[in-house]
Amino acid sequence: MFEFSWPWCFVLLPLPWLLSRFMPLKQQGQLRLRIPGFAKLGLNNQAVQQHSRKVSLLEWAVWISLVVAIANPTWLDEPITLPNEGRDIMLAVDLSGSMTEQDMAYQNQYVDRLTMVKAVLSDFIEQRQGDRLGLILFGDTAFLQTPLTRDVKTVSQMLSEAQIGLVGRATAIGDALGLSVKRFANKDESNRIVVLLTDGQNTAGNLDPEDALLLAREEGIKVYTIGVGSDNPRGFSLFNMGGMSGGNLDENLLKRIAEQTGGLYFRAKDVAGLQQIYQELDKLEPISSDEQTFRPQISLFYIPLLVALGSISLAMLVSFIRQFKQES
Fold first, then answer.
1. CA gap 99, 253 in Å, rounded
2. What secondary structure letter does DSSP report for 188?
3. Which comes out higher in pLDDT, residue 33 or 230?
4. Which of 2, 85, 198, 255 has the most other CB atoms within 10 Å of its CB?
């Protein structure tokens, strides 16, 4: 779409005609836009008349170009939708040894818990267009893998590259929650949400889960906790021979964290259950429907300005050539 930033400038277009119409001839000569060099050509009367008409047209072309440049012609590109500010979600994912337990049925085969979590959580991440997402991975301790960002593809990629044992074999729930609270600092305007996913109980870390819970409550951060693990153990686990099932899960802690922060606790015993949990989260924390749009603007004032300068330069060049021929 094409428009002018200051269309009222076009009222200046008839200004040269008004000056020639109502001002004395002597003053007109002083104000007239003149092309350098034409006064020295030494033309006869008929040639002078023809030349005068050409100069007059050229002067009008220059004047119109300058007025168009002043009006600032602008090209408006296609509208771009900007997500609203307001919702920050930190995902805290357990990478402890028990996440290798192959007790989750996925695509007609049993896979380990982390593989299932990646498959389902990646879909959830990619659907959160408009939200800021961050990723925390925890084992013996917790570390920030991805800070809060609207680049959900990067968050999904970082999750897909996570490996069991990357940060140890234990489970530092307190550290994960505490780090999430810390990363929400200076974001009071947003809906601050933590989705904490684990299959065990707190067995490591520097921060007690109860202390982390107190910090989350004081900061007004809502925590949704998800306990992962089937009730039917399936034999082999890389770090745990004989399987762990869901019996090692500290559901009381996860329920308490969720209830005291205004969130909810969910239990994911299979893929369908985890998918349903994320669908429920979408209902509880819907993506903001209000959107802002803006249209990129490209100022084109330089085009008519170059036309004006080019016309003057061309006239000067023609004048120079004619003068050279007269003298030779």
1. 19
2. T
3. 230
4. 198
Residue 245 and residue 183: Cα distance in Å, rounded? 32
pLDDT above 80 (res 57): no
Over residues 135-143, the mean pLDDT reads 94
String of DSSP letters for 257-301 = HHHHHT--EEEE-SHHHHHHHHHHHHHHSPPP--EEEE--EEE-T
Does residue 22 surpass a pLDDT of 90? no
User: Model's pTM, two decimal places?
Assistant: 0.61
SS3 79: coil
Residue 182 in tokens:
């810390």
- pLDDT mean over 66-71: 89
DSSP structure string for 119-175? HHHHHHHHT-TTSEEEEEEESSSEEEEEEEES-HHHHHHHHHT--TTBTBSS--HHH
Taking the CA atoms of residue 294, residue 300, residue 302 and residue 303 in that order, the dihedral angle to the nearest 10 degrees is 170
Cβ neighbours for 208, distance < 8 A, ≥ 6 positions apart: 174, 202
Q: Which two tokens stand for residue 22?
A: 């109502």
Structure tokens at 101: 């337990």
Encoded amino acid at 288, one letter: S
Residue 138 and residue 265: Cα distance in Å, rounded?
Answer: 19
Structure tokens at 161: 């590259």
Position 42: which residue type? G
Q: What is the pLDDT of residues 82-128, one digit of tens each?
A: 555 557 899 999 999 889 888 887 777 888 899 888 988 888 888 88
Angle made by CA atoms 260, 264, 267, in degrees to the nearest 5: 130
Give 111's DSSP letter.
E
Strand partners, 299: 74
Question: CA 137 to CA 174: how far, in whole Å?
Answer: 12
User: Do the bridges between strand 104-106 and strand 80-83 make them parallel or antiparallel, or are there none, so unpaired?
Assistant: unpaired
